[in-house]
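This protein record is not my work; I was only asked to verify it. Would you go through it and say whether the fold makes sense for this chain? Here is the record exactly as it was handed to me.
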Amino acid sequence: NVDQDQSRVTIEVGKAGALSFLAGHTHEVVSPVRGVIRFDAEDPSHSDVHLEIDAAALKVTGKGDPPDDVPKVQQTMSSDQVLGVERHPTIVFQSTSVVIKAQETHGLDLTVSGQLTLHKVTRLLTVPVAARVDAGALTARGSFSLNQTDYGINPVSVAGVVSVKDKLTVSFAIVAKPSGG
């Protein structure tokens, strides 16, 4: 089971536009992650990953933002203008394959492919993952990029001069422990 207290996703939201060098801010958004990783120690390629994020749990950290802007950015992100968390409450990743690129005693270099459902749009996603198994836990780290428009989300724009970049950078640290452990 994924340990929600130790597992995090971090999303870097950049800025774009003609005057982005003068105005606007980058944003950092974080959330806990829940789910189940069925790890096959004998053959890691037979492993399975199911992760979920409560869209309402995504929080703007304030890093890169003036403090007064954080509540406005949070409200806009949660609103129908962006995530629409009331209509699209869950973000889900379900693996379809796990490919081992390299394996050491406690470490694995993997490529995990699967279906990411965001904003009720499902698309194939392939993610490089560095995994480590020790002390009764599996820790997986990695990062990837995705375009908001691929999931039916239009990047927020202010007067067409400064906008949020379409491409988001997502990084994660997932810790999973055996059931009951």
